[in-house]
Specification:
This protein is of the alpha+beta class. It has three domains: 60 residues, Structural Genomics Hypothetical 15.5 Kd Protein In mrcA-pckA Intergenic Region, Chain A; 97 residues, Pseudouridine synthase (2-Layer Sandwich); 160 residues, Pseudouridine synthase (2-Layer Sandwich). The protein has seven helices and 18 strands. Helix 1 packs across helix 2. It is globular.
Length: 344
């Protein structure tokens, strides 16, 4: 199926080469390894890590050559000291945590959760705790195993700062059926968003392929003909227009990573407070009133909410429609925009 700001295991810049912290591994380049690439050297000595993971460790300055940072392509020399801080091992299972869940629907086969913003769906680098899977592992005795040990029950996902309804399978049979519905694109997803500025059209379809960003690993981009590109289609409709803003409904036909955020940014109407694609991470009241004394923060996450999902029940085939109310932060932001930025 998303950054560490600090790592207590990383030695400080003052750590001396001869006095590495206990977690750093120190190796000496042999005669046979003279002029070998640094990443190739590490792959041979630490085979449990992939070359890509080792290259990322080098880029993250967790590898030093004679006490200095280096590049993957650095040619090492005999007798040089190579220091390496191995990445922390990923947990083998979801760790149960007593995190409250807002349950929208539940039966013996599936559960629908209203995911809050700032919650990561499943464990990933920098987010080993506080995840939805940790909360699910605590609250439910049985979840599907199809997604693996660290993603029990997870059929699809939402970005960390996107709120709203997400489906979780309790059994493998339910998981397989729901996954098939997503794959066949028969699941109807509806998102509410505030975008800025207002779109030129009242409604439109954005049909542009999405792939890896050319130089920012955490982002996606419109990439035509690229090896990572996958077709992506989103329908949007404007609900209400304001000066410089609009509230919209978006219905993605496909389910690419960051799809709505990338598509709306592509047409010049980024999701409000989308730190990756809009250039703004927060919205203050003074941004609307233009009075510097209004320092109240209205919103500090992307104004994107998974409002409704329609699908067939994985066991009995009945039509299902589950909605999650728009959260307070987005509602209050829209109200402030409506008050201070009405369409003239």
């Amino acid at each position: 199926m998303i950054n560490d700001e600090s790592d207590p295991n990383i030695a400080s810049e003052e750590t001396q080469l001869g006095e590495p912290t206990p977690n750093w591994q120190v190796l000496t380049v042999s005669e046979e390894e003279h002029l070998e690439r640094l990443d190739a050297f590490l792959v041979r000595h630490f085979p449990k890590f992939s070359r890509v993971k080792l290259q990322r460790a080098i880029a993250a300055k967790k590898v030093r050559v004679d006490g200095n940072n280096a590049k993957s392509s650095t040619r090492i020399k005999r007798e040089q000291k190579i220091e390496f801080l191995p990445p922390q091992p990923e947990p083998e299972n979801a760790i149960p945590e007593d995190i409250p869940l807002n349950i929208l629907y539940e039966d013996d086969h599936l559960v629908a959760i209203n995911k809050p913003p700032s919650m990561v769906v499943h464990p990933a680098k920098g987010h080993w705790s506080g995840t939805l899977t940790s909360a699910l592992a605590f609250h439910f005795q049985q979840l599907s195993s199809i997604g693996g040990a660290t993603r029990p029950g997870i059929v699809h996902r939402l970005d960390r700062d996107t709120s709203g309804v997400i489906l979780v399978a309790k059994s493998d049979a339910a998981h397989i059926n729901l996954a098939s519905q997503f794959e066949k694109r028969v699941v109807e997803k509806e998102y509410f968003a505030i975008v800025s500025p207002s779109p030129n059209h009242d409604r439109d379809i954005i049909d542009k392929p999405i792939g890896a960003h050319p130089y920012q690993r955490e982002k996606k981009a419109i990439r035509i003909g690229h090896s990572t590109s996958r077709n992506a289609s989103s329908f949007f409709e404007v609900i209400e227009r304001y000066q410089g803003f609009a509230s919209v409904i978006v219905k993605p036909k496909t389910g690419r990573t960051h799809q709505i955020r990338v598509h709306m940014a592509h047409i010049g109407c980024s999701v409000l407070c989308d730190r990756l694609y809009s250039g703004r991470a927060k919205l203050h009241l003074h941004d609307l009133t233009r009075k510097n004394q209004d320092q109240t923060i209205l919103l500090e996450r992307q104004a994107l909410h998974a409002r409704n999902i329609k699908f067939k029940h994985p066991i009995d085939g009945n039509e299902m429609s589950i909605s999650a109310p728009i959260p307070d932060d987005i509602q209050q932001t829209e109200q402030a925009i409506r008050e201070f930025r009405p369409l003239l």
